[in-house]
From TrEMBL, chain A:
Residues 1-87 form the Rieske domain. Gene3D superfamilies: Rieske [2Fe-2S] iron-sulphur domain. Keywords: 2Fe-2S, Iron, Iron-sulfur, Metal-binding, Oxidoreductase. SUPFAM superfamilies: ISP domain (SSF50022). InterPro entries: ARHD_Rieske_2Fe_2S, Cholesterol_7-desaturase, Rieske_2Fe-2S, Rieske_2Fe-2S_sf. GO terms for molecular function: 2 iron, 2 sulfur cluster binding; iron ion binding; oxidoreductase activity. This is Rieske-like 2Fe-2S protein. CDD domains: Rieske_RO_Alpha_N. PANTHER family: 3-KETOSTEROID-9-ALPHA-MONOOXYGENASE, OXYGENASE COMPONENT (PTHR21266:SF60), IRON-SULFUR DOMAIN CONTAINING PROTEIN (PTHR21266). It comes from Paracoccus versutus.
TrEMBL record, chain B:
Signal peptide: none annotated. The lineage of its organism: Bacteria, Pseudomonadati, Pseudomonadota, Alphaproteobacteria, Rhodobacterales. Keywords: Oxidoreductase. GO terms for molecular function: oxidoreductase activity. This is Vanillate O-demethylase oxygenase-like C-terminal catalytic domain-containing protein. Residues 96-270 form the Vanillate O-demethylase oxygenase-like C-terminal catalytic domain. It comes from Paracoccus versutus. Pfam families: VanA_C.
UniProtKB/TrEMBL annotation, chain C:
This is Glutathione S-transferase. InterPro entries: Glutathione-S-Trfase_C-like, Glutathione-S-Trfase_C_sf, Glutathione_S-Trfase, Glutathione_S-Trfase_N, Thioredoxin-like_sf. The lineage of its organism: Bacteria, Pseudomonadati, Pseudomonadota, Alphaproteobacteria, Rhodobacterales. Pfam families: GST_C_2 (PF13410), GST_N (PF02798). Residues 1-81 form the GST N-terminal domain. Residues 88-208 form the GST C-terminal domain. Gene3D superfamilies: 1.20.1050.10, Glutaredoxin.
Length: 196, 284, 208
């Protein structure tokens, strides 16, 4: 779910990440319930399959039919970097950030209330900004935690936000657990701001 | 939106008879309205929020009501009077989508191998042969006939895979009945049907029934079989976007296997049904 | 051995899963839980005065409560001793702790599902909020387990704790509870459905 867009993410055998509108063009079924086979995504409802480019590759109810070219899943832009998956609108021209170093994903944590800014998020984590990557992602350091942390958030408006962290591939298990606990603690910091 | 005339003029099942035993103003919701059902010494009555008493009838194991004073007559199912048939009323299941989507899903054989895998279909036999779709102009209802599909376990009484023959009937925007090959008798059809209670435009309660010849299974066995199948459908129905039914042909792309769905959507449009329908500009 | 079973019950599903995992032959007696409320009938109250399913009959005795049945089956019939790890007290303690947690999942996530699917009259907002609280705890736990190289709730093997927690977590979507927020839970579900002899129940997204 990105802004108000419902998105299906999938990765084929070729390792490439893809982000599509979460809706099969046939009968509107969410493609995120689908099944990945090789480099195709198969819709759960009627087994229609789509190739990596979003073109319909097969309609099981009509095995002899070559699917018309007009049947396509709408694709967003998607890329891997820093252990995160980055998604943008189809028309977006800026490239996904390229992040130096070898990172492994650490946590994705849901919080009730999105932080107003990256700075507010870093403050909430007790972290210092080392370098900003986008308005929603940065490399940070937390006193007492070895190594750097890649930190990002996805603002989902009334649905709160997701906080994502990655740590260097060389990070120890203790450091990884420490970062995970810091992410978890953000739930107490960014609580729903209801009057109650 | 207030319900269009076609929607408003129908009878709707709102529960099984035992559900209302001893009811005292039991709340029920229909077409975005709060109603109550009361049982006075075995006589059921339905009132709207203003206390107006609505028409009722008891048929096919269910209590039916209507918001209209001059409703279209409820369709006939003569099979309910045939001796030796067993009726199992399966109970109302809530689904977060337009009831129109539930009818369409019910008419659709192409999903059997994927949604009801190894029961109503197998992935090795996904093909849907052409079938006939016709309108009964006099009764204003849709029939899909000569439908055939390979099924590993067509019903609780089936003992192995078979080519199953189907007929589908849509006599009402929120009701549909299927007639399928009876696994134990040659000259008759087994019936399974849905009586849908539209709660909101994008929310409904599906009351289903089975009316079959079966000497082997208990009622509870038949009930479990049917509820299991319907819960498989429910996960699909709750994850179709949008939740209302799109009637604009630019929106969802059908194939030949969807001939009954195409006829159903056309029929709804011809009857100027609007309540529960997604508008094309909502798609963006 | 006989299971008093309802096809849509997640608590009965726990028992069906373990019976299959342990390859135990058994019969099932279908209970008309809905719409018939057979579990509240006089006859059934003789079997379980709490008026609940599942109940297992074995060797002429009735055992009630899904968690208790799981413990019974694993201790009696699991030759590997991994599903209920009696030989490792600290792991056993963790398993027992998560069995209790599973019962709280029943009273929240399962309640929301009973409301949405079968029309039970209860406070669904409260049930969903309670489930989200528990799912955060489970998601944090599973994520930290992964960071330490453990795939399952109590350690490196699946135990009855996983079996007890799985159904109503995996079926949460039926009750309008979005699992999108819990990526570690999603990965655990994907591992669980890949266990040998696993059988799917309607309403479960296998996240693959
Ligand atoms: N703690 C019990 C709870 C079982 C339970 O809640 N079962 C439900 C069906 S899934 C039931 O029978 N509910 C009826 C009731 O509690 O009155 C267990 O784990 O077995
Ligand atoms: Fe279906």
């Amino acid at each position: 779910m990105i802004a108000d867009n419902d998105i299906a993410l999938w990765r084929g055998e070729d390792g490439q990440i893809r982000a599509w509108e979460n809706r099969c063009p046939h009968r509107g079924m969410r493609l995120s319930y689908g099944i990945v086979r090789g480099n195709t995504l198969t819709c759960l409802y009627h087994g229609w399959s789509y190739d990596g480019a979003g073109a319909c590759a097969g309609i099981p109810a009509h095995p002899d039919l070559t699917p018309p070219k007009t049947i396509r899943a709408k694709a967003y832009r998607a890329a891997d970097s820093g252990g995160f998956i980055w998604v943008a609108n189809p028309g977006e021209t800026t490239a996904a950030p390229s992040i130096d170093g070898d990172w492994v994903p650490n946590r994705s944590v849901h919080i009730d209330q999105a932080p107003a800014s990256l700075n507010e998020l870093a403050d909430g984590m007790g972290a210092g900004l080392m370098s900003k990557i986008t308005d929603h992602a940065a490399i940070v350091r937390v006193p007492g935690v070895e190594g750097e942390i890649l930190l990002a958030f996805l603002d989902m408006k009334e649905h709160g936000a997701m906080i994502h962290t990655s740590v260097p591939a060389s990070a120890s298990e203790d450091a990884a657990i420490a970062v995970s606990k810091l992410s978890t603690r953000l739930r107490q910091v960014f609580k729903a701001s209801s009057a109650a | 939106m207030t319900p269009d005339t076609f929607t408003r003029s129908q009878w709707y099942a709102i529960g099984r008879l035992p559900d209302f035993e001893g009811a005292e103003a039991k709340p029920v919701r229909l077409l975005s309205q709060d109603l109550t059902v009361s049982d006075a010494a075995g006589v059921l009555s339905v009132n709207d929020a203003d206390g107006r008493s609505l028409l009722t009838q008891i048929r096919y194991g269910h209590l039916w009501t209507t918001l209209s004073d001059t409703p279209r007559p409820l369709y006939d199912m003569p099979e309910f009077d045939e001796p030796d048939r067993r009726l199992v009323t399966v109970g109302g299941v809530g689904v977060r989508c337009s009831g129109l989507r539930c009818v369409e899903n019910f008419l659709d054989m192409a999903h059997f191998p994927f949604v009801h895998t190894d029961i109503l279909g197998v992935e090795e036999h996904p093909s849907v042969e052409s079938y006939d779709v016709s309108m009964d102009a006099e009764k204003d209802e849709i029939w899909a006939t000569k439908c055939k599909f390979f099924q590993p376990m067509a019903s609780a009484a089936a003992s192995g895979g078979q080519m199953t023959e189907y007929k589908y009937r849509v006599p009402h925007p929120y009701s549909t009945i299927l007639y399928k090959t009876c696994p134990i008798r040659e000259d008759v059809w087994d019936l399974v049907g849905l009586f849908i209670q539209p709660v909101e435009e994008d929310e409904c309660i599906v009351h289903s029934f089975i009316l079959v010849f079966d000497e082997e299974n208990t009622d509870t066995g038949l009930l479990h079989f049917q509820q299991n199948i319907f819960l498989q459908d429910r996960m699909i129905l709750e994850n179709q976007v949008p939740r209302k039914l799109p009637l604009d042909p630019r929106w969802e792309l059908p194939t030949r296997a969807d001939a009954s769905s195409i006829a159903y959507r056309r029929w709804l449009k011809a009857n100027e049904l609007q309540w529960g329908v997604a508008l094309f500009n909502e798609a963006a | 051995m006989k299971l008093f079973d309802y096809v849509l019950s997640g608590n009965c599903y726990k028992i069906r899963l373990l019976l299959d995992f342990l390859e135990l032959s058994h019969e099932k007696q279908a209970v008309d839980f809905f719409p018939g409320r057979e579990h509240k009938s006089d006859a059934f109250l003789q079997i379980n005065p709490l008026g609940q399913i599942p109940v297992l009959e074995d060797d002429g005795a009735y055992i009630r409560d899904a968690q208790a049945i799981l413990v019974y089956l694993a201790s009696r019939y699991d030759p590997t001793g991994t599903w209920w790890p009696v030989n490792d007290p600290s792991e056993l303690g963790r398993v027992a702790q998560w069995l209790a947690f599973a019962d709280s999942i029943t009273s929240t996530a399962s309640a929301a599902r009973l409301h949405d699917v079968l029309g039970y009259d209860l406070d669904v907002a409260q049930a969903r909020a309670g489930a989200h609280k528990l799912f955060r705890i489970l998601d944090d736990h599973l994520a930290n387990q992964e960071l330490q190289g453990f795939n399952w709730i109590a350690g490196s093997n699946p135990t009855v704790a996983d079996v007890a927690c799985f159904p109503y977590v995996a079926l949460a979507g039926d009750g309008g509870i979005e699992l999108f927020y819990y990526p570690a839970i999603q990965r655990w579900i994907r591992r669980f459905v890949n266990l040998p002899r696993f059988k799917l129940m309607p309403g479960i997204n296998i996240f693959n």
